Hints:
Layout: H1 3-23, H2 29-41, H3 51-65
Amino acid sequence: MTDIELDQILTFKWPxxxxxxxxxxxxxxxxxxxxxxxxxxxxxxxxRPSQRQERVMRQMLIDYSADRExxxxxxxxx
Length: 78
């Protein structure tokens, strides 16, 4: 993960991931703690995620970034 990519993730995407994970009733304690930890460590100037952290971050970006718009409710007009 490049410095620019990490900065973009932490600035633009991670806040949304935090909100979605914290709102997910199925998210376990690890996921909730992990997103908060990354947000906290990401504020440090010289911090870089470990390989494992990067792998989990990328998976969360995939799992929680997808547009999760509710399915439209179709109805017939009379």
